[in-house]
Amino acid sequence: MSSHRQVWDINLGLFALAEGKANTFFDFFAYIYARQEQFYNASFMHKTHKDLRYLILQFAEQHAKVDPVKFFNRMDDDDIYGQARMPIRYAATRSVWATPTVFINNATDVPVDHNLRSKYSV
Description:
Blueprint: H1 7-18, H2 22-33, H3 41-44, H4 49-64, H5 68-75, H6 78-93, H7 115-119
Helix pairs in contact: 1-2, 1-4, 1-5, 1-6
């Protein structure tokens, strides 16, 4: 997901909503991932950054009934910036070019492909 312009703000929204809770992060990630056609490159080509932020807020409100002001403030917080930056930096150092890409114990030769989804669907 790191190769399109929407990913950074989506990442901020994930961390802002999760507040350090892994299960909350992954639940919200699955929720957003299931709706990626709404923010993927072609469908978002003529939309603005503000449009994206409001779409992320809409997802957060539907998923977790967030307070809009608090949510946007959290997305803009330096702490969230630091948390959100780490996975993207890690992905860049590992030459991630497609999603999802799976690393288990930092191994790069993990036998996971699209067929795994049907076996372990989210």
